[in-house]
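#dry-run=false #mode=assembly
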Amino acid sequence: MTFQDRYTLAYKTYPYEKSPDQDLPAPVRHPVVIVGGGPIGMALALDLGLKGVGVLVLDDHEGIGMGSRAVCYAKRTLEIADRLGCAGPMVEKGVVWSLGKVFHRNEKIYEFNLLPEEGHKMPAFINLQQPYLEMNILDRVHAARAEGAPIQVRGKNRVDAVADKGDHVEITVMTPDGQYTVQADYLVACDGANSGVRAMLGMSFEGEVFKDSFLIADVRMKADFPTERWFWFDPPSGSGASQLLHKQPDDVWRIDFQIGWGANRTEELKEANVRRRVAQMIGEDVEFDLVWSSIYTFQCKRMAEFHRGRVIFAGDAAHQVSPFGARGANSGLQDTDNLAWKLKLILDGTAPAEPLLKSYDAERIHGADENIRNSTRATDFITPKSEISALFRDAVLTLAAKHDFARPLVNSGRLSVPCTYDGSPLNGPDTLADGPERTRPGSPCPDVPLEGGYLLDRLGDARGAQFQILAIDTEAPARFTAHGLDCDVMRLSAADSEMLRARYLGAAPGAVYLIRPDQHVAARWAGWDESAVAAALGRAIGKEG
Amino acid sequence: MGTLNTSRNLAAPDDVYDLLIHAHEGKTKAESDAFNARLILILMNHVGDRDAIAEALALAEV
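#status=ok
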């Protein structure tokens, strides 16, 4: 059987090699098998490998796909990458823009300047072509493997069948040398919006059916061009419902033309037609090279459940959203952040499997619904579905041209903000009276500058699945052990840090936080209470406390 | 019920109503519709309270 690549590679990073597994008489068992070597699969492999969990990535391609694709990575994604040790080169290479311009039909209606909150190690977001993100993760995988992380990546290994046998998963893999079988304690499908694993298991992928398509062009400008984001509602000359332009590294600008579901793919992708659209947007006299173009389609959908038995889904395989707000790759990386420590505790026998996997479903379905809601709202604003909806949208844009108060109503996509797991079964008590909203249980810890670095440098656990206790201006023991987990206690004072006070204490004089390995708050109290902390820790690992 | 003021609140109701009707004079149907949409957005911002707006929307259902 021959292999037909579904897309062009930017880098052939893991060419097919025959694995010794293929010649063994009995299938080899791996703790975790990941299907799909995109950014989500590879980030999960890195996270698990750093934790010492044996992981095998099976990818039907041999490297990193071409094209800028996801483009925009939000702060939470960079914080996750930083915990895994690969944010540095991304931030260094990435582009940050702060000046945005909003256009409606023929005119610019207003400009804005993003003023991100201070006191964070990571920027609010960066623009970066997806292959750079994937290359950085892969470089880190290679470095981790050299230090002994048990990560294997196999190119041109296509998964043809998956069977959950109850105590393991059996996976039939096709290679250029024929078929072989591997087994996994858990299989994680990170195989994208058209997930083959999801189809093999006949699992549902439903939601509000919203169909549209985008023509994407990466262009290299031959002369100076401003580092600004331009968003165009109803662009002139009928180029579609919206256009977006923003800067990427290497003097490349990314342009997204929303061209509707019925667009003729072949016609639209002809170079002359792409160039015509680009020239209409940036000006007929601006010289550019066309680097890459593609047509992207999407629907807003998610699976009803993100795991069944020993098969788990992450990233686009589990949920798909419109591109407004950059919520695809960003939410996928939050999936892996959520899942890795849970699999580690389950495989170590420290925590019960089903409650923790159910919590993955609950927390990440909450995240997916939030992303679908936000991207649907943006879509409804950009492409109004009724006459009255269009009337209000135009009224907002007309007012926004003259009045500041109307500008917050303009929705060209809300930048992905980290998901707070409100209502999660893992959340413990919040007895910090008047504590800040943003650090309630379920929240990702906001960063704060500390002496010699940042708080998030010291929170979370890349190498294991340890919980931490953060004691701010209150008594706490030096260590705490319960439920087979040994928690570090970090003591801080807000005396010299207004940011720490504002973000973690509010009006309270002191606080104790229980922090999960993924840097989310599990519970918080006004002071140390050993039995309460033990109960919350039990609850946070799926042992009802 | 909550925050929406549904008691009599206009000191000179005829004047205010007259302002509203006069504002639409000389406008086509499309212009009036667009005007009304802007007016609703302006007044919504003035109210500034999600619950009051939700109550008003429910009240407008008749």
